[in-house]
Amino acid sequence: GQQLNQSPQSMFIQEGEDVSMNCTSSSIFNTWLWYKQDPGEGPVLLIALYKAGELTSNGRLTAQFGITRKDSFLNISASIPSDVGIYFCAGRTSGSRLTFGEGTQLTVNP
Amino acid sequence: GAGVSQSPSNKVTEKGKDVELRCDPISGHTALYWYRQRLGQGLEFLIYFQGNSAPDKSGLPSDRFSAERTGESVSTLTIQRTQQEDSAVYLCASSSATGELFFGEGSRLTVL
Q: Are the C-beta atoms of B104 and B93 separated by less than 8 Å?
């Protein structure tokens, strides 16, 4: 099946710092999605990407669909304590199901 | 409702009992997924339903696990003869035609 490698596995940062995480795939995807999961809740969609090279922002979050269509990154600027959680990338090719990365656990120290 | 609804939100059962978990997807969503998430772990794919196509059951960990979906509505995940290793949060998600997946809050299963 399709494989997604998400890194880093965990991050510990100070409030105010910028954060970057990424996902790479063995397959070409036509959709990349980024999710955040807070403790005790289901993952929530942050950003959806549908076109190679696309750069999309949602507040302090920015995500890009890689030109090769095999990678994507998520940046968080000026982190705040409520950014704590697990971030998942997900990708899919046309007609197939979504594949999720292993997640990045983010800890923000005040 | 407006979102994906799962029930029960919490279930405690004894080893060996059967459990049934329910998912009500977002109305009109053709795709439905079940995932298992153990404490501190990622999302483990279990099963995928897409319209009237045969479900992708490749993630089901054993024959004790099964799932059904009637048309494009409710799905039930059944675990027979539960084991302690089955303790986890079971997440359901449904997808629009564009592929954006929306998750429910999950059903937390504890097998004693």
A: yes
User: B24, B43, B92, B102: best mutation site toward chain A, by most A Cβ within 10 Å?
Assistant: B43
Reference B37, options B93, B82, B112, B94; nearest CA is B93
Average pLDDT of the residues in B82-96 = 95
Which among A48, A99, A101 has CB closest to B100? A48
Inter-chain residue contact B99 with A33, CB threshold 8 Å: yes
pLDDT of residue B99: 74
**Of B42, B45, B99, Cβ closest to residue A103:** B42
Task: Answer whether residue B22 shows pLDDT above 80.
Answer: yes
* More confident: B87 or B52: B87
Burial zone of B98 (CB within 10 Å; 0-12 exposed, 13-18 middle, 19+ buried) = exposed
Distant-in-sequence, close-in-space partners of A105: CB < 8 Å, separation ≥ 6: A9, A10, A11, A85, A86
| pLDDT at residue B21, as a whole number | 98
Write out pLDDT tens, residues B35-48. 999 988 899 999 99
CB contact B95 to A (< 8 Å): yes
d(CA B65, CA B78): 6
